UniProtKB/TrEMBL annotation:
InterPro entries: Kinase-like_dom_sf, MAPK, Prot_kinase_dom, Ubiquitin-like_dom, Ubiquitin-like_domsf. Residues 36-107 form the Ubiquitin-like domain. GO terms for molecular function: ATP binding; protein serine/threonine kinase activity. Keywords: ATP-binding, Kinase, Nucleotide-binding, Serine/threonine-protein kinase, Transferase. Residues 1-32 are annotated as: Disordered. It comes from the Eukaryota. It comes from Symbiodinium microadriaticum (Dinoflagellate). This is Extracellular signal-regulated kinase 1. Gene3D superfamilies: Phosphatidylinositol 3-kinase Catalytic Subunit, Chain A, domain 1, Phosphorylase Kinase, domain 1, Transferase(Phosphotransferase) domain 1. PANTHER family: MITOGEN-ACTIVATED PROTEIN KINASE. Residues 131-419 form the Protein kinase domain. It holds the Pfam family Pkinase.
């Protein structure tokens, strides 16, 4: 979706995030027809009577049946007499031949039909027959993104594909981690894994099905879309909720930036891209020099993760940078390399006191920080030029803090007055993972053979009718 198509009108979104997000019915209530009565008859002989508007679409009927009978829409077939109802998602009941006091036989099937689909730039892939390709929506260094539409419900679905996924052991390990984490996470602000379609016998390519989101936050920030204080609050609130949940599961995102914050028209947020996620307290990891503009100072200056534990503080820093960018409409700390990045941080915040830099154990790094005498307007003055409320400035001064030990956590940030209109005790209960991620299991999937077997077993778990896993 192009950035100029996204319209985040203040007040047009609800506090709660709907799962999944349905295509909205744009017709005015005044033109809706009368309610009609239908009988849903199951093969067991059970009958359920429902009332639904005669102008409802087939998608609305299928959702109603799914909710009433607790039967997944994609595994449900509807019959009028001996004829299966195959009308499209946007067909009205009348167009589908369904009338008042009609009887629909509801048949639940064990598995859905798949068919081979040719994906541009990727090749052949088995996908559910109910999906209709819309377009190739993008490509990056790792994934090719395709948009499909569910012919039963009308929802858009994203297909992410990787060719030669197992050609590199490290890359394959990150893919396994992405799939594992996506299916472990159960939070409304984290992208949902919908399926891992069955793979061919000697597969080397991977496809996954995930929720469709309209656009990423980086595209919004580059656009002419106005962001009000309310927008900034709601977007940041959801990012922090997702991170708070991840941290409770022992997962550090580690590469948070606007590009991995997905947004839809109703301002609902989903975090994605967990290829570089790390376990809390990780000691050995290759941090590289990625995502520099949003990287916390400890990810650049610290070389001893036994003394300073890796924590969610680095994600909290990134949130602060993103929030400041929402007000500035340009990055807070652009830099060309690690050295100029640290210099930009010190110019923004001022030179840290001795006790604020004692966590920097590398002597060369400590001398560099201590020797930086860059002009600054003061540690707190930088927030005044943002045009943000005092509550926003207070939050930024707690997130963008040089010393990670003094930086507020994502959970603490949610309690700030900036979010007083959004904070909900019931939601806070949902921001804790039921169980931590089993990093030991992930770390045991090391060789390419094990990585391929893991994905194959995941396909088998979801689609046992296609193939048996290799032993």
């Amino acid at each position: 979706m192009d950035s100029d198509e996204l319209k985040l009108a203040a007040g047009s979104y609800s506090r709660r995030v709907a799962e999944p997000e349905a295509e909205e019915d744009q017709s005015p209530p005044s033109i809706r027809g009368r309610d009609i009565t239908l009988t849903l008859r199951l093969l067991s002989g059970r009958e359920v009577h429902i009332s639904i508007n005669e102008d409802a679409t087939m998608a609305e009927l299928r959702r109603y049946i799914e909710k009433t009978l607790a039967l997944p829409a994609h595994l449900t077939r509807l019959y009028l007499g001996q004829d299966q109802v195959n009308s499209g998602y946007d067909s009205t009941l009348a167009q589908a031949g369904i009338e008042d006091e009609g009887v629909l036989t509801v048949v639940s099937v064990a598995s859905e039909e798949f068919e081979e689909v040719t994906l541009e730039g990727f090749g052949q892939q088995l996908l559910p027959a109910r999906l209709r390709k819309v377009k190739l929506s993008g490509a990056c260094a790792f994934w090719r993104h395709y948009t499909f539409r569910d012919a039963l419900l009308g929802d858009k679905i994203s297909i992410r594909c990787v060719k030669q996924a197992f050609s590199d052991e490290e890359w394959a390990g990150n893919l396994v981690k992405e799939i594992y984490l996506l299916q472990h996470f159960k939070h409304e602000n984290i992208l949902k894994l919908l399926d891992v379609p069955p793979a061919f016998e000697d597969f080397n390519d991977i496809c996954i099905m995930v929720e469709h989101m309209d656009i990423d936050l980086a595209s919004v920030l580059r656009s002419s879309q106005e962001l009000t204080e309310e927008h900034c609050q709601y977007l940041t609130y959801q990012i922090l909720r997702a991170l708070s949940y991840m941290h409770s599961a022992g997962v550090i995102h580690h590469q948070l930036k606007p590009r991995v914050v997905m947004v839809n028209k109703n301002c609902h947020v989903k975090l994605t891209d967990f290829l570089d996620a790390l376990p809390a307290n990780a000691v050995h990891f290759d941090d590289g020099d990625h995502n520099r503009w949003y990287r916390a100072p400890e990810l650049i200056l610290n070389q001893d993760w036994t003394a300073l534990k890796l924590s969610g503080a680095c994600d909290a820093w990134s949130v602060g940078c993103i929030l400041a960018e929402m007000y500035r409409r340009k990055p807070l700390l652009p830099s060309r390399d690690a050295i100029t990045h640290v210099q930009s941080i010190l110019k923004l915040l001022g030179a840290p006191r001795e006790e604020e830099r004692e966590w920097v154990t590398n002597q060369k790094a400590r001398d560099f920080v201590a020797g930086c005498t860059l002009p600054t307007s003061g540690p707190d003055a930088w927030t005044a030029s943002l045009g943000a409320s005092e509550a926003a400035q207070d939050l930024l001064r707690r997130l963008v803090v040089f010393d990670p030990r003094r930086r507020c956590t994502c959970q603490e940030a949610l309690q700030e007055s900036y979010f007083q209109d959004w904070s909900d005790p019931e939601e806070r209960q949902l921001d804790r993972s039921a169980e931590p991620v089993d990093w030991a299991h992930l770390e045991s999937v090391t060789s390419r053979d094990k990585q391929r077997q893991y994905v194959r077993q995941e396909c088998h778990r979801r689609h046992p009718e296609f193939f048996e896993p290799k032993t």
